[in-house]
Amino acid sequence: MNAILDIKGLRACLRGRSENAYVIDGLDLTVQEGEVVALVGESGSGKSMTAFSILQLLPPAIHITDGTILLGGHDVMKMDVRTLRQVRGTQASIVFQEPMTSLNPLMTVERQIAEMLLIHGKATRRTAPGKVIELLELVRMPDAKRRAKQYPHNLSGGLRQRAMIALALACEPRLLIADEPTTALDVTIQQQILKLLLDLRDRLGMAILLITHDLGVVAEMADRVAVMYAGRIVEHGPVVELLEAPRHPYTHGLLSCLPAEHADPDERLTEIPGLPPQPGSIRQGCPFAPRCPRSDAICTEVEPAMTSDGASHYKCHHPWTAP
Amino acid sequence: MTDDLLVIRDLRKTFSTPSGALTAVSQVSLSIKRGETYALAGESGCGKSTVGKIVAALVKPDAGSITLDGNDLTALSPRQLRPLRRKVQMIFQDPFSSLNPRATVRRIIEEPLIVHGLGNRGERRRKVAEMMDRVGLRPEAADRFPHEFSGGQRQRIGIARALILNPDLVVCDEPVSALDVSVQAQILNLLKDLQRELGTAYLFISHDLSVIRHMADRIAVMHLGQLVETAPRASFWANPTHPYSRALIAARPDPNPRNRLQDKPVLEGELPSPFEKRKGCDFRSRCPLAFGLCAEVDPPLRPSAPDHYAACHLVDEPDSRNHTAAA
Ligand SMILES: Nc1ncnc2c1ncn2[C@@H]1O[C@H](COP(=O)(O)OP(=O)(O)OP(=O)(O)O)[C@@H](O)[C@H]1O
Ligand SMILES: Nc1ncnc2c1ncn2[C@@H]1O[C@H](COP(=O)(O)OP(=O)(O)O)[C@@H](O)[C@H]1O
Ligand code: SF4
Ligand code: SF4
Ligand SMILES: [Mg+2]
Ligand SMILES: [Mg+2]
Fold it and tell me: Under an 8 A CB cutoff, do A186 and B207 touch?
């Protein structure tokens, strides 16, 4: 297998604050061709910033200080503006939680997708309209011909999400980065969209980096999972191992917070006490130590390195044992 | 004499919008007992928040009655209503936008006391400190502003404000939907602890059935402005009856990695437009069991088990049990 995405030692710093405000801090992540990798973690852990780094779309206040990001074997940080523009869309594209961040409210769905095709030389003025309908049918937009002529605000949330996915797929990217693509949608619509993504993976062979905070979505979709905390990957592994036998106390905590199917409703839910750290606030040791039920003296002194045990990989001095 | 705290009968609310009249709530009847958690489930736009706001007297219904503790609220004058309003408070989904950004936490939490003219300055101060402590906020933080707090802490501020008048009923509108699971667990535990201590009833609005399963004594499922199923906890989870309730339960992402999406049935079809006049069952465009009658006749809520009602033509049909069970 070949890696479509290979990130090594990535660090990104928030400018203008104290020097160590790293929002991404030593992140390693790979996605193989055709693979669905889920990136999970609490709000503010750096998931979206990781996604933006891959396409060099970081906000101006944040800049990359260390590491490499290989997309299809090429380092995106060494690309000039023209190459980057080419890579966005053909190698990788992003869909966001809020479709209106990528859809232009003043253009019909057809026109936006057609422009994308024309810019990348994937269609001519003559062939574009037919290709647009093909794409809308690919994402199962009901009544595609009529919808193509509509503006984004004429569409429901679920249909808008489909239009955005069609736009993202226009240039047949090898990697689709989906940042909370269904968080704003109802469960029944969410299910349709997620199933569509899996279908497209099977038919087009594209890889998906799925960013989500929902472990249910992870369980349904992912081949592999990477758990993010304070700008780092603290555990990663195949979905079954990771969810059934989490080794890192943070992964373990996230799973035990969920209301269990058959638990006694009078039982209290397990909490993870406290809050995730602000960028820059962790100076040494394990970033999870202030909230960790297993932490001891060494945890607050020494940041654990990534350890591998079979298919599981984790950064922890006192991991849960494999069953 | 029953222990019903709040009884709603045939509630209706229509909004006029630029695209035409939109009936957000229609024929909704339910009753909430003292100290219980009554959940309203359903997809976005189905009218859950509108019901909640009507109950909290933030929106006026077009028709129907609301009885609180035996007093028909729709029949009272604003003056007679005032003391009763104290008994119902509300917590909102979005802790980021529901708190006045320019007010201190103290000011936010004590506001209901001021509005209802309760206590002097010192008494209010004491009461605020007590409430903050109760919901897990440090009372020293009373002079800070909402933006200095995290989402979970802001939700605690909202809870403190809702509970300071010691209400009988709190409408919780998606109280944990904007929060991470770790913080969600903290807030759900807090709501349960407070209920146990204070005997407050909750109208708990959520689209998340896993959360509802953990919280609710009774569940009502709403679809396009109408209730399609109501049942006590045990009966609902043992026998979810309406095809829509079943679809919602099946669609819920389940953190078991051996239940993959590829193997699950997916609800296809589009919702009917809420602006158009509709005939028959509103769920039929997406219902895998729809048949001829469904296009003609709107099914009323009918009993399917003790205290358990569902609005589907297949309920009570002698063969329908096998029919639905096979689906
Ligand atoms: N434009 C920005 N300027 C400064 N800091 C930012 C900016 N955007 C994000 N950050 C900070 O970077 C960190 C990582 O944010 P990021 O958006 O990647 O988190 P996330 O994991 O995607 O969270 P969520 O689940 O809420 O989407 C956070 O501390 C956030 O406050
Ligand atoms: N003030 C309003 N004016 C016009 N339409 C409204 C208003 N409030 C709600 N609606 C509409 O009423 C329907 C029900 O809304 P709501 O009760 O907020 O649903 P839910 O809480 O279940 O998501 C929706 O179609 C919504 O757009
Ligand atoms: S290294 Fe220590 S503090 Fe960090 S997760 Fe492991 S046990 Fe907890
Ligand atoms: S009445 Fe018909 S369409 Fe409606 S839920 Fe029942 S079977 Fe389905
Ligand atoms: Mg994000
Ligand atoms: Mg709502």
Answer: yes
Rounded to a whole number of angstroms, the distance from the CA of A186 to the nearest CA of chain B is 6
Distance of CA A299 from the midpoint of ligand 3 (Å) = 6
Q: Is the ipTM of this complex over 0.85?
A: no
Residue A1: the pLDDT is 61
CATH number (domain holding residue A255): 3.40.50.300
State the CB neighbour count (10 A cutoff) for residue B130. 12
Q: For residue A236, what is the DSSP state?
A: E
Select from B182, B187, B189, B214 the residue whose CB has the most chain A CBs within 10 Å, as the one to mutate to test that interface: B182
Residue A255 with chain B: CB contacts under 8 Å? 255
B222 bridge partner residues: B227
Q: How far is CA B122 from CA A71, A149, B125, in A?
A: 63, 63, 5
Looking at ligand 4, which atom is closest to the CA of residue B294?
Answer: 2
Nearest one of A208, A269, A287 to A42, comparing CA atoms: A287
Q: Is A227 in the pocket of ligand 3 (CB under 6 A)?
A: no
B266 touches A at CB < 8 Å: yes
Identify all chain B residues contacting A263, using CB atoms and an 8 Å cutoff. 214
Residue A175, both tokens: 């990697």
The answer to whether the CB of A299 is under 6 A from ligand 3 is: yes
Handedness of CA B244, B245, B246, B250 (dihedral sign): positive
The C-alpha atoms of residue A98 and residue A185 are separated, in whole angstroms, by: 10
Q: Which of A187, A258, A272 sits opposite B255 (nearest CB)?
A: A258
Q: Is residue A83 part of a domain?
A: yes
Is B179's pLDDT higher than 70? yes
Residue A312 lies in a domain: yes
Q: Which of B152, B213, B257 sits opposite A239 (nearest CB)?
A: B257
Give me the tens of pLDDT residue by residue for chain A, a chain 323 residues long: 689 999 999 999 987 655 668 999 999 999 999 999 999 998 889 999 999 999 999 999 899 999 999 999 999 999 999 999 989 989 999 998 777 778 999 999 999 999 999 999 999 999 999 999 999 998 888 888 999 999 998 888 888 988 999 999 998 899 999 998 887 778 888 888 899 899 889 999 999 999 998 999 999 999 999 999 999 999 999 999 999 999 999 999 999 999 887 777 778 899 898 888 888 787 799 999 999 999 999 999 999 999 999 999 999 999 998 76
Percent of residues in chain A assigned helix, strand, coil, to nearest 5: 35, 25, 40
What range defines the domain where residue A9 resides?
Answer: 1-91+215-259+271-323
Which positions in chain B touch A213 (Cβ < 8 Å)?
Answer: 180-181
Q: Is residue A236 part of a domain?
A: yes
Residue of B nearest to A245 (CA): B257
End-to-end CA, chain B: 42
Contacts of A180 (CB under 8 A, 6+ apart): A96, A97, A211, A212, A213
Whether A265 is in a domain gets the answer no
Selection from A145, A141, A59, A155 nearest residue A100 by Cα: A155
CA A47 to centroid of ligand 5, rounded, Å: 6
Q: Is the pTM of this model over 0.80?
A: yes
**Domain tally for chain A?**
1
Centre of ligand 6 to C-alpha B51, Å, is 9
CB contacts < 8 A, A to B, total 117
Note the pLDDT of residue A18. Answer: 56
